[in-house]
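This entry is passed on directly below:
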Amino acid sequence: MKRNRNAGFTLLEILVVVMIIGLLMSVIASRFIGRAQEAQVTLAATQLRQLEQALEMYRLDNGRYPSQNQGLEALVREPSSEPLPRNYPPGGYVRTDGIVDPWGVTYQYVTPGEHNSFSFDLLSYGPDSIAGGEGENADIVNWDSEVP
């Protein structure tokens, strides 16, 4: 029985297979990267709704929303500046990471709000961390029902 010495793969064949796998991986990865951005926007919108609920609980417990100076930090730690809360729960209303958007920036809190003049405005500047923007870089706000 005679063996063929060339019965393996050539370097060229291996390189072609590696290139094909690389191309497939890049196509798959590009689809997942778009989904990750989408998921972060959805997470930010969900966190905004949770912050709204926490602010409403704060108002129910204390008769008012945190002041502009106290900001969202009042949901994490009991404020030591006026107006002092009269009924602050142990542990606060949210965890520290609950006031930070998925891009690492603290949510913006304005009271009284420009858009919600009897309560507050909450917003995240989105992935680009710049006010305004369109499409993927649009701000995520609590006064627009079209926001996810």
In short: The chain has one helix and three strands. The longest helix spans residues 11-62. The first strand starts at residue 108 and ends at 110.
